[in-house]
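Entry 0007
Protein: Dehydrogenase
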Amino acid sequence: MRVAIIGSGISGISAAEYLSERCEVTVFEKNDKIGGHADTQTIDVDGLQVDVDTGFIVFNPENYPRFTELLTKYDVPYKDSDMSFAVSNRFSGLEYNATSIGKLFCQRKNIFNLKFYRMISDIKRFYKEAKSLLSEPDNDISLGDYLNQNHYSEYFIDEHIVPMASALWSGKAELILKFPARYIVAFMQNHNMMQISNRPIWKTISGGSRVYLEEIEKSSNFKVKLNASIHSVARSDTNVVIKTHDAEDEVFDKVIFACHSDQALKLIETATADEKEILGAIKYQHNDVCLHWDINLLPRQKKAWASWNVIRSEASKENCTVSYYMNLLQTLDTETPVIVSLNMNDLVDKEKVWKYLEYEHPVYTQQTIEAQKKRHLLQGQLSSYFCGAYWGWGFHEDGARSGLEAAQKLLQDIGYAE
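Output (structure tokens):
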């Protein structure tokens, strides 16, 4: 059985790794390296070669079972990370780090700020009350409407819940408020975030996420074709033809689209009505990323520096603006701060830039959720399967799990017995 997998992000790698023990698998990757959002940059910092992740960064074994299974199988080392969160409001001057009481009140004036105390109260109330949404499967209220109907303070909305969700999903505030509230709460509950204490200890790959990619590719029995620019994919009930720009057509028995849903639609020669409806319902947002060492993109007060730093400014009106302090997230031992900032390229001192990058992230609306429920209508039709983090919450485990599920469905369809 010859299987083509289009895309070498975690979804494609997870599918390829599982199938390669049972089928002849070829992974097509349009770029010159595998990985997708598992993207490690090697930069010179203080005279040292340092590996920095600019896409996927952290995970935890409890909530990332498929991904952790791969790391364990291929002996990939990982270490503790830091998941602290801070907000720096350049309009009002407010700054806080939610890690501890001391850092929460790193600005002494917050001790006398009644709105700040109301925000803390609303945080506790949200953790307690919002869980009720999980018992209401038909409740499609948006986050914005839920917060307004339940009289949460504007301070809590603007200075905490929206910045936090924006940082998690790399989405601008306007889109975050349209997210289904139940969806956000389900993610937070699943990741033990609906509580003040006893949160999971997050991990990061030692040496960067490229390490796990190298170990899987080295030890697995699948072929990878880099710089493979696919023109189109023709499908039937019996085979699949991969047409590239600079090579002969290749015929396979099955294909797994492990790219973004909109990319898959563009590659398919003749999409079905279901594919157009379901894949077309999932939208994406563009995010510019800058790897730099300009501390002006961190909170003004060093006491407020956290792993995730949401910077509220004019730029944040249009996009998610967050700076990841990589020295904390990846425990980088450098004197020079290593920072990854989203959608603030114009604010970074160009003399302090290592690299510019671009990523696309899925947008979650009720339309997205409805499309996810119909995934089963696509799998196996015209010898095709679809996987990607867009079938879940948009995180690395969602991609790893959906790749595995697509591979398992394919084997089930061809009658493969374990």
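Curator remark: The two ends are 15 Å apart (CA to CA). Residues 84-198+294-351 form one domain.
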